[in-house]
Amino acid sequence: MLQRIGLGFLIIYLLVITISEIQPTGGIVVDPVLTRIRTRAQLRVGYDPGSLPFTTIINNHAAGHDIDLATKFAETLGVEVLFVPTGLDAAYDELQQGHFDMIASAMPYAPEQGWRARFSTVYFDDGLVLLQRQTVPIKRIGVVFGADSDTMLRRMHHEGRAVTPVYGETTAELWQLFACDVVDAVIVEESIAWAMHDYDASIRRVEALSYVPYVLVVPHDAPLLHEALNRFLADADDDGTFVALRQKWLVGAIPRSPVQCSGN
Questions:
Q1: Which of 44, 72, 214, 220 is the Cys-Cys partner for 100 at CB 3.0 to 4.6 Å?
Q2: What does the radius of gyration of the chain's CA atoms come to, in whole angstroms?
């Protein structure tokens, strides 16, 4: 009887160790998600293929800024990575159901989902910014028609700012207007601003107009995975990983061919 009791306690102890980590304080934190990842030696990552340049599909494979970021995180865990396509409208449900262990797809911070998810520290702010090439009074502002920047410009006009909108149908058209000084400034997302500044270092950020923080998302019952993720992001910020990823994925948002302005 005593042997059976002892064996039972041993099994329980081994089970606790399997699904838990002992913290420096002596407490036990349960993380079944991290246990599954280590057991299968695989991190499953949900992504929306339509969030270019952060997530997309190239040659039938997941690609993009966040895909590379998640791959590097899996390497720090010592496991393989599997990318699972999903839609942003279903991502939280699928995460909760265990279809994947993390979401990496330009996900804005969503505190209303905090009851079933944990959010990493912010790794990119893709809010709208006002850019200028020359120090002149800003009267003509270029935006992409129908984009968030268009809505922001209409709001600025409604608030009494004396600005004239100039529209481009695409980011490439907007860049043409900006580079040829048809407009005094443009409103674009930070990811586009990266590309424009890389093309012309004289471009400066005049004003941040909105804040759109992107985070990586893990299940709520993954506290240790969450801690490991935040440590990884802090290291990536220090060792140049983010700069390299942005140089690789964000600078291609506008054409690299020479701009042809009227009269040239």
A1: 44
A2: 23
CA angle 85, 252, 166 (to 5 degrees): 105
Q: What confidence tens digit (pLDDT) does each residue in 84-123 have?
A: 999 999 999 999 999 999 999 999 999 999 999 999 999 9
By CB neighbour count within 10 A (0-12 exposed, 13-18 middle, 19+ buried), where does 18 fall?
Answer: exposed
Q: Strand, coil or helix: what is 245?
A: helix
Calpha distance 47→56 (Å, rounded) = 8
Which CATH superfamily includes the segment(s) 128-208?
A: Periplasmic binding protein-like II (3.40.190.10)
pTM of the model: 0.86
Domain layout of the chain by residue ranges: 18-125+213-253, 128-208
Measured in degrees and rounded to the nearest 5, phi and psi for residue 56 equal -160, -170
The model's pLDDT over 152-186, given as tens digits with 9 standing for 90+, comes to 999 988 888 888 999 999 999 999 999 999 999 99
Which of 180, 194, 198 has its CA nearest to residue 127? 194
Q: DSSP states of 139-166 as a string?
A: -EEEEETTSHHHHHHHHHHHTT---EEE
